[in-house]
Amino acid sequence: MKRLLATLMGGIALASPLLHADQSANEDVPHVLCDGHRLTFGWHGGAPHRVDVSNLIRAATLDSAKVLSAERAGDVDYFVVSVSGPSPSWQAGNSNSGGTESNLLWLKLRSWKLLDSQSMQYQSYWDALDPIGTSHLMGGVLTLRFTNRRQSIDYVLRYDSAHPDEKISIIRAADVE
Predict the structure, then answer these.
(1) What three-state secondary structure class fits 86?
(2) pLDDT of residue 13
(3) 26 closest CA partner among 4, 50, 46, 3
């Protein structure tokens, strides 16, 4: 397996919109732009590629995205992307709820066609989810903590770049510690 990327800058808070605006300078990691409910991936000097993620997000539209991991196994590309956007309004006459919806997306693509996907929400105005601290990468394993305020339970999202086909797992933080 050829690894395109297994690096994430330590100390980056996923909850911050600035995280998504600041793309990595690593040429092995594509830049990603948001266009409504689509992500447009591109490398310096390469052709851009669009992927529709509308069925994977709850945000009204996407306003930020950041590639956290990019792996290649044969002719299959795996991406883990953090995306955020404003919460949709479900009340008549209310154009904006004022909240944020954020997801960690796992995307499996061949020739830029979506073969499989997974979406894990870690921030939500409507579901009372908030990120805790910062994401961490250690030994190729990405972790992100968040809390469910309604249940008063903390969770850990985990992705191992050495096993990209295994997707993102979610574990109760109490079971990890």
Answers:
(1) strand
(2) 31
(3) 4
From residue 15, give the alpha-carbon distance in Å to each of 1, 45, 100, 127, 136.
31, 30, 9, 15, 13
Spatial separation of the C-alpha atoms in residues 74 and 48, rounded to whole Å: 21
Q: Report how far residue 12's alpha carbon sits from residue 19's, in angstroms, rounded to the nearest whole number.
A: 7
pTM comes to: 0.81
Kindly calculate the radius of gyration of the chain based on its CA atoms and give it in whole angstroms. Answer: 16
Domain ranges of the chain: 17-87+97-176
Chain segment 104-162, per-residue pLDDT in tens? 999 999 999 999 999 999 999 989 999 998 788 889 999 999 999 999 999 999 999 99
The residues near 44 (Cβ < 8 Å, ≥ 6 apart) are 27, 31
Query: What six digits make up the tokens of 48?
Result: 């851009």
Q: Which residue has the tokens 């968040």?
A: 146
pLDDT tens per residue across span 86-102: 998 865 555 556 799 99
What's the one-letter identity of residue 89? S
Q: Which residues contact 117 (CB under 8 A, 6 or more apart)?
A: 53, 56, 105, 106, 107, 108
Residue type, 164: P
